[in-house]
Amino acid sequence: MLRRPLYTASLKTRKEIEKHVNQLLDMEVIRKIGNNEIVKFTTPVLITWCYGKCRLFGDFKALNNYTKADRYPIPRIPHALDKLAKAKYITKMDFMKGFHQNGFKPNSINLLRIICHMGIYE
């Protein structure tokens, strides 16, 4: 069982967390966990600021102790650029919300629960 407490946040950061969480709820990417559900794993959410914009993310470092590393490496950037140079068509995609389109096995969703001042979500 790894139930980490939420991080303290300033009022400004809390408002941003609320904005992001509500956006994810509206997109039906996350759902709020009921008060009666047993929660064995939570990870706190953080906000990172860059150039006046912020981004919400979960601190899942502790989860690494419970998972196996992938055996296939990420391609090196020069190799990827070499392949891209020979391409006839190039597609530009917005990956800011792309993470939320990943599918997860039903038995692993409970490991991806986040906690903030608004509650626990998966």
Automatic annotation (TrEMBL):
Protein name: Reverse transcriptase domain-containing protein
InterPro entries: DNA/RNA_pol_sf, Rev_trsase/Diguanyl_cyclase, RNA-dir_DNA_polymerase
SUPFAM superfamilies named in the record: DNA/RNA polymerases (SSF56672)
Domain of life, per lineage: Eukaryota
Species the sequence originates in: Austropuccinia psidii MF-1
